[in-house]
Each structure stands twice: as structure tokens, then as C-alpha cells.
Amino acid sequence: MPRPLLLASASETRLSLLRNAGVQVTALPARIDEETIRSSLEAEGAHPRDIADALAEMKARKLADKHPDALVLGCDQVLEFDRRAFGKPASMEDARQQLQMLRGQSHRLLSALVVYDGGKPVWRHIGRVDLTMRHFSDLWLEGYLTRNWDSLRHSAGGYKLEEEGIRLFSAIEGDYFTVLGLPLLPLLSWLELRGFIDA
Ligand SMILES: Nc1nc2c(ncn2[C@@H]2O[C@H](COP(=O)(O)OP(=O)(O)OP(=O)(O)O)[C@@H](O)[C@H]2O)c(=O)[nH]1
Questions:
Q1: Could you tell me if 34 and 100 are in contact, meaning their C-beta atoms sit under 8 angstroms apart?
Q2: In contact, 109 and 128? CB cutoff 8 Å
Q3: Of 13, 14, 39, which is best to mutate to test ligand 1, by the most ligand atoms within 8 angstroms of its C-beta?
Q4: Which of the listed residues 77, 153, 167 should we mutate to test ligand 1's pocket, taking the one with most ligand atoms within 8 A of CB?
Q5: Which residue's alpha carbon is nearest to atom 11 within ligand 1?
Q6: Contact 21/39 with Cβ under 8 angstroms?
Q7: Cβ of 77 below 6 Å from ligand 1
Q8: Does position 2 have pLDDT exceeding 90, yes or no?
Q9: Rounded alpha-carbon distances, angstroms, from residue 119 to 24, 106, 122, 141, 149
Q10: What is the overall mean pLDDT for the chain?
Q11: Which residues does the annotation mark as catalytic?
């Protein structure tokens, strides 16, 4: 039987991807201190994959505790480079340094999903995309940051693929929706399998 989804996320991108796919979804951001949690997990030696999964679960659980009968989706995206985990840039300088570090290199985006139903975790998935950045010039980078800061500040990698962020790359291997922060196809398949959306 179709069931509405509670999205434990402040991400406009995730909400619009789900709505555009025809999923009946309500967004109720689960405010957790991601930076502190990410840093402490990393200090304990957690792999970026496990950090993304843990953060997604914490967001889902926080909302599921308040809505124990609901179907709740928590999400988190982490950029993995050199075995380190990065989130959204805190400032334009942060974004500049991160993009200069990634220039000419390959990094991985990990997008984790955790679904709670009846107050318990019932499904989880991590999407992975490998992205290679071209050797863009510092001059081009300054223009990119000035033109796009208001938008890219909300993205884990410091870029929005569907906007000018595509100009950072020479190669991308993986699913477009996973780059945007929501591995949509595996989620829709699971929702269909469980009868929560029409198949
Ligand atoms: N539109 C767009 N959004 C992107 C892209 N890459 C990453 N993002 C967004 O970057 C954000 C990743 O940070 P997260 O901490 O996972 O999510 P958030 O936006 O803080 O929202 P919460 O789920 O409430 O934590 C998500 O909102 C992603 O949708 C992209 O290429 N395009």
C-alpha cells in the first residue's frame, strides 16, 4: 500500500528529486551537528563510507524517534579523497583550498541512504561515484567561485554538476543522481518492491 515518505533532510535538491519522481514526500530536517560528528568519527579512524552511513542513520533515527509509525529517509553525502572525508565548504576560502587540492586528481562521492520504518532501520544503501577534475587555472577558479559561491556552498564537493560545476571535470564514472546526493534508482526500486510506491 502506498505510504508517504518523511525526508529527514534540509536538502532542496533531494526533496525536488523525490517529488519530480512522483514520490509523496514531506521534508522535516533532522538538525544534527554533522561537522563535529564527522570529525570525531574520522579521528577514530572510521572510513568515509562508514561516516556517511552513520550520519544518514543519525538523521533518520532522530526523525523516526519523533514519528515512530512513519517511513523515514535519512541521507548524507561525503567526499572521499586520500582516505579523508570532506563535507560542505565552510567558506569560499575553504572551497578554494579544497578545489585546488582536488584539481587534476580523482575523488569519490559517497551518498548514503538509511530508511527507518516503525522506528527501526529497514534498508540502507551507499552510492559511489568517481570523479576526475581537470587542471583548471587559478584564474578560472577565482571566477568560478565568485560566480557560484551562493550555490556551491550547499554542496559537499563545492560544486553543482547541473550548473557550472560540470566545468571542473574531465571524467565522471557513476550515477548522476548519486552525485546530486540521492541514489534515486535503488531507492525507487526498494520502495516499489515493498509496495510503498506504485510499481
Ligand atoms: N543540486 C546539487 N546538489 C548537490 C550536488 N552535489 C551535492 N549536492 C548537495 O550537497 C548536499 C550534501 O550535504 P549533506 O550534508 O549530505 O546534506 P545537506 O544539504 O546538509 O542536508 P541534510 O540532509 O539535512 O544534511 C546535499 O544537499 C546534496 O543534495 C550537485 O551536484 N547538485
A1: no
A2: yes
A3: 13
A4: 77
A5: 155
A6: no
A7: yes
A8: no
A9: 20, 38, 9, 45, 38
A10: 96
A11: 76
Q: How many residues in the chain? A: 199
- Cα–Cα nearest to 103, from 153, 58, 145: 145
Closest by Cα among 91, 185, 174, 172 to 128? 174
CB 74 within 8 A of CB 113: yes
Report how far ligand 1's centroid is from the alpha carbon of 166 (Å): 16
Each residue of 56-94: pLDDT tens digit?
999 999 999 999 999 999 999 999 999 999 989 999 999
Give the C-alpha separation, 163 to 174, whole Å. 18
Which grid coordinates belong to 28?
522535516
C-alpha span between 96 and 145 (Å, rounded): 7
